[in-house]
Write a structure and sequence with these properties.
Blueprint: E1 3-5, H1 10-15, E2 20-23, E3 26-29, E4 35-36, E5 39-40, H2 46-63, E6 71-78, H3 84-95, E7 101-106, E8 117-124
Length: 126
């Protein structure tokens, strides 16, 4: 049976999703942005937004008993190609010692134009 937890984000109820789902030894986060208390923080700073988004994703994993050391995959969606290096640096600071498989994609945009980065994590703990 899957454990599904929300975070209180206004998007969760509007769209109908959970922030994190754990089923057995796997857990997945929904896309996490730099949104805190309903407001995008670190406007214009993709590196800081990536750090905040990764922190939100790791906090969600912690709520289902997983830690950074359990992360096996990350996906980073970046609005502007020129921000990829900053987002990659943030990823390396937070998950570099774990070395999950990773994908970074340039996307057209997000639901809020202030959002520059969105991340998803997959974790595994046998």
């Amino acid at each position: 049976m899957a454990e599904r937890l929300g975070s209180g984000s206004p998007y969760e109820d509007a769209v109908g999703y959970a922030r994190v789902v754990r089923s057995g030894d796997l857990a997945w986060t929904a896309g996490c942005t730099s949104t805190v208390d309903g407001q995008v923080v670190h406007e214009g700073d993709a590196g800081a937004q990536a750090r905040t988004a990764l922190g939100i994703a790791l906090d969600a994993l912690a709520r289902v008993g997983m830690g950074a050391e359990d992360v096996v995959q990350s996906r980073m969606y970046v609005r502007h190609a020129h921000d990829c290096e900053l987002v990659g640096q943030a990823h390396a600071e937070i998950l570099g010692s774990v070395r999950p498989v990773a994908t970074m994609l340039i996307v057209e945009g997000f639901v809020d134009p202030l959002m520059l980065v969105e991340v998803e994590l997959v974790a595994h703990r046998p």
